[in-house]
Amino acid sequence: MREFLQAMRYFSLFLGLLAALTSMAQEHPKRELRAAWIATVSNIDWPSKPGLNAYDQQAEYTHLLDILKGVGMNAVIVQVRPTADAFYPSSYEPWSEFLTGQQGKSPEPYYNPLAFMIAEAHKRCMEFHAWFNPYRVSIRDSATFAANHPFHSHPEWFVKYGGRWYYDPGHPGAQEYVLQTIIEIVRHYDLDAVHFDDYFYPYRIAGEVFPDSCSYQDYGQAYANIDDWRRSNVDFFVRELSARIKQEKPHVKFGISPFGVWRNDDKDPEGSRTRAGQTNYDDLYADVLKWLKEGWIDYVTPQLYWHIGFEVADYSVLVDWWSKHSYGRQLFIGQAAYRIGRAGWEDPDELANQIALNRTYQEIGGSMYFSAKVFAEDRLGINAKMKSIYPSPALVPAMSWIDTTAPSAPTIQQVGGSQTDGVMLSWADTTDAAYYVVYRFQQGTQISADNPANITAIVPRQPSALQSWRDATVSKRTSYIYGITAVDRTHNESELSPTVSVRTRGRKGSVRVGNR
Hints:
The protein contains 14 helices and 18 strands. By secondary structure, it is α/β, with parallel strands linked by helices. The protein folds into 2 domains: about 25-390, Glycosidases (TIM Barrel, Alpha-Beta Barrel), CATH 3.20.20.80; about 410-515, Immunoglobulin-like (Sandwich), CATH 2.60.40. The protein has an 8-stranded parallel barrel with strand order 1-2-3-6-7-8-9-10, surrounded by 4 helices. It has a 5-stranded antiparallel β-sheet with strand order 14-13-16-17-18, with no helix packed on it. A 3-stranded antiparallel β-sheet has the order 11-12-15, with no helix packed on it. It is globular and about 80 Å long. Residues about 1-25 have low confidence and may be disordered.
């Protein structure tokens, strides 16, 4: 009987998915986060190896952004503080060995990688989420630390577990120091978001106890057990960092990408129908639901790295569960692009099916893909599939609790063209605009900014009173209608500008203009 009920459940899920794919196959949201993680530990994504000279690092990064932009991404999540070291000049921690090959050594020739990376992302109208690993200090037993590393000046802040060093999450001095390392970046750089992944307390290792009993004796006696104290440590860190980010720069978002299972339902009736061996709440001491309920984070991106139908942790079950537990905050899904072609992912449409399923839930605002290298390698032809999943550009979803005031609509002031330049549009800069969206309509079609298929360009704001953009994709002897919107830093979009009509002549770009 049990086997029959389980079979019926999967059949029901299959029918629901089939209906979802049928109804959603042609729907492509205008607002959808489409992001890729760029991992730097062990140089998974960038740079290709430690110690590259600055010019090669920059060339690799911009090439990677161009690839990601080309497959539809509108954000990157870059690991800038992977092991208590930095991809930027820091007052707190040394230069990263994963950047230069030696911890504490600066890039040669010298440049500021973080400032460069942010500027290049914004140049392409892509959000930049700075990815921090708050507690991890090393990834191997043989780690050596630079002379200016706090490991030397404050050894009491550190513990070793599984051959790796960590900041002790329960030590107040360590907590405060790590908070300051992150706020330093929020204060001095033009970030769009601060991002954590799933590394809070480390994943459990069989037969080994995390060595924080001394900290528990010193600081945790108000708690009945060490597990509750550990969760309170992470709660404090998340709450405090959230408050400091908003105090420093209210527009900077704070997002977390936890392990995909909060709790199994055999431990908690509010948990998911899963049988994960470790969970956020019980093993990583990360009570993600509490952070969402309290509004401490702006978005959550659970890492749902399993396929549809996986018995232990079914993707479709978890998508449904998280959609019911986002508590009004933005929900994105962590997609396992790296698993395509592996066991359980033999179906070449697995990833496309997952995105189609996501789009049936209004609570889900997009995806983050692990990791960028999959697209850089075009693994198993994934880039062509991505272009079918994302045939049109998309705006990043706005967050109403941060800001709801849109900029005023721009006005197109000049339209021109030549035989080689295409159609040139110019408009006055709009107060509070961070970028502009250019819409192009065929003559006789509905004038609407709601359809992303009408987006022909997303243009960064230029440091000029007069903004301009050239449409080099026009055809000869064709009528077009153009309109422009202004979008602010938190992605509130203005009304569409008054439109202008353009008729190209026999020579490409030679135009006749008429106002509508």
